[in-house]
């Protein structure tokens, strides 16, 4: 059986954070900072109201992980298991072998390394907890903070895609794709 986030032993602890699966009630906890313009600048979903945010949040709980500093949720992310591209006769073996990572951090705690700590924990969850062989993350090329986090946690830039991403500003922006293989992750720890 392929493990899911629900199968892991929670909570997980890093130096400054406690991680656990997201819960329905976390929607209200993250809403005050998630809706800020500086956060919405780079998120993939825009929730104009708290009710809309609650609905979107509930739909993503299967892959959701939150990071707490004390008793306050300061980070929200995803570890979404996916299927690697394969030839048709290898599809069963490719199922669930990679994961997409994503994260967002309360701007009130930025600059303290918590985003990097949280993203590294998501990476470790994917490899060590879910047993995937590859993790991926994407961002707008203009999102320098997210790019720095990807570099710091060991992901390598795999592609820059010119004007392939339509931003909610109406501008076409360059997109970036980052990834890391499990064997590379092990070698870095080595």
Which structural traits does this protein have?
single chain; 190 residues; 7 helices; RimJ/RimL family protein N-acetyltransferase; acyltransferase; transferase; N-acetyltransferase; GNAT_dom
What can you tell me about this protein's structure?
The longest helix has 16 residues. The model has no long low-confidence stretch (mean pLDDT 95). Strand 1 and strand 2 form a beta hairpin. It contains 7 helices and 8 strands, in the order E-E-H-H-H-E-E-H-E-H-E-H-E-E-H. The protein has 190 residues and is of the alpha+beta class. Helix content is 32%, strand content 31%. The protein has one domain: Aminopeptidase. It has an 8-stranded mixed beta sheet with strand order 1-2-3-4-5-6-8-7, with helices on both faces. Helix 1 crosses helix 3.
* Low-confidence regions: none
What is the fourth-level CATH superfamily?
A: Gcn5-related N-acetyltransferase (GNAT)
Our count of domains comes out at: 1
Mean pLDDT figure: 95
Q: Quickly name the level 1 CATH class.
A: Alpha Beta
- What is the CATH architecture term? 3-Layer(aba) Sandwich
Report the total helices. 7
What is the N-to-C order of secondary-structure elements (H for helix, E for strand)?
Answer: EEHHHEEHEHEHEEH
The largest beta-sheet arranges its strands as 1-2-3-4-5-6-8-7
Examine the coordinates and then state which fold CATH places here, giving the name of the CATH topology. Aminopeptidase
How would you sum up the major sheet?
A: 8 strands, mixed
**Large-scale geometry:** globular
Helical proportion, percent range: 25-40%
Instruction: Output the structural class.
Output: alpha+beta
Using only CA atoms, what is the Rg? 16 Å
Family: Belongs to the acetyltransferase family. RimJ subfamily.
Pfam families: Acetyltransf_3 (PF13302)
Keywords: Acyltransferase, Transferase
Domain N-acetyltransferase: 17-174
């Amino acid at each position: 059986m392929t493990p899911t986030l629900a199968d892991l032993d929670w909570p997980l602890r890093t130096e400054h954070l406690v991680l656990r699966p997201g819960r329905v009630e976390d929607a209200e906890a993250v809403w005050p900072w998630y809706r800020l313009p500086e956060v919405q600048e780079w998120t993939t979903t825009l929730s104009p109201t708290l009710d809309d945010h609650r609905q979107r949040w509930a739909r993503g709980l299967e892959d959701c992980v939150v990071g707490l500093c004390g008793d306050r949720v300061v980070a929200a992310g995803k570890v979404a298991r996916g299927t690697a591209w394969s030839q048709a006769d290898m599809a069963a073996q490719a199922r669930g072998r990679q994961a997409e990572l994503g994260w967002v951090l309360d701007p009130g705690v930025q600059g303290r390394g918590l985003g990097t700590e949280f993203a590294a924990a998501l990476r470790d969850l994917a490899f060590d907890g879910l047993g995937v062989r590859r993790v991926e993350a994407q961002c707008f090329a203009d999102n320098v903070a997210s790019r720095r986090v990807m570099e710091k946690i060991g992901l390598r830039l795999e592609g820059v895609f010119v004007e392939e991403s339509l931003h909610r500003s109406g501008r076409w922006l360059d997109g970036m794709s980052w990834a890391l293989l499990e064997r590379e992750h092990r070698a870095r720890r080595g």
